[in-house]
């Protein structure tokens, strides 16, 4: 069973000396396409004005600009899932999972990086980078590029069985499902939540790893603390499970 997941703006720094290389990423046959985006990013960092970098990074802090204005290919790297540190990743708490649970995440989760495109959670060689969601790299629009070049490979991978799409809506611009898939919606006191949706995506993924969920049937039978199913909506290839948050957050 495959789970699609969003990245986060927040990331852990540092890493180890594992290079950006074809054999380290999902879809190695598309490495040249992926690396062309990285080279475009590097070139843009080299020549862009301070104002342009502020827009690209989504910050005006000079220290942040200085920190990220470097060659991606010379930077320390991490496993993909360990690089991100946003809300969903805080609640996933990957580092606190046991080995078999981490392996589940590594193998079953595809994370859609704004810069690197779709990656397996367990892929290695991801440097610390900064690219504000939805920003262009000069004239290059990463989400359009990855949709054009990676959709066929993703279709081949995902059409094998129904899958769970836990991405934020923006990432449909990278890949729009074409085979049966399921999304989740989280409600509290009759309203759709946003910040806590990120938290519960992490909680759901953590529960899946702990219970080793390998089918939608097993997922539907899974109990998740503080969540009850409110309704299940089906339209074409899309199933949406609506949860009520009943306690805690």
> Strand content of the residues, in percent?
15-25%
Count of beta strands: 10
Instruction: Give the rounded overall mean pLDDT.
Output: 96
> In terms of structural class, how would the helical and strand content be classed?
alpha/beta
| Secondary-structure element string | EHHHEHHHEEEHEEEHHEE
The helix count comes to: 9
Fraction of residues in H or I helices: 25-40%
How would you describe this protein?
The protein has 249 residues and is α/β, with parallel strands linked by helices. The chain has one domain (3-245). Helices cover 37% and strands 18% of the residues. The chain is built from 9 helices and 10 strands. The protein has helices spanning 31-47, 50-57, 62-68, 80-83, 87-92, 99-108, 142-158, 195-211, 216-221, and strands at 3-5, 77-78, 109-113, 117-120, 126-127, 163-165, 181-188, 191-192, 227-235, 238-245. The strands form 2 sheets. Strands 1, 3, 4, 6, 7, 8, 9 and 10 form an 8-stranded mixed beta sheet that branches. Strands 2-5 form a two-stranded antiparallel sheet. A hairpin with a 2-residue loop joins strand 9 and strand 10 (238-245). Helix 6 packs across helix 8. The longest helix is centred in the N-terminal third of the chain and has 17 residues, at 31-47. The chain is globular, with a radius of gyration of 18 Å. The two termini are 28 Å apart. The model has no long low-confidence stretch (mean pLDDT 96).
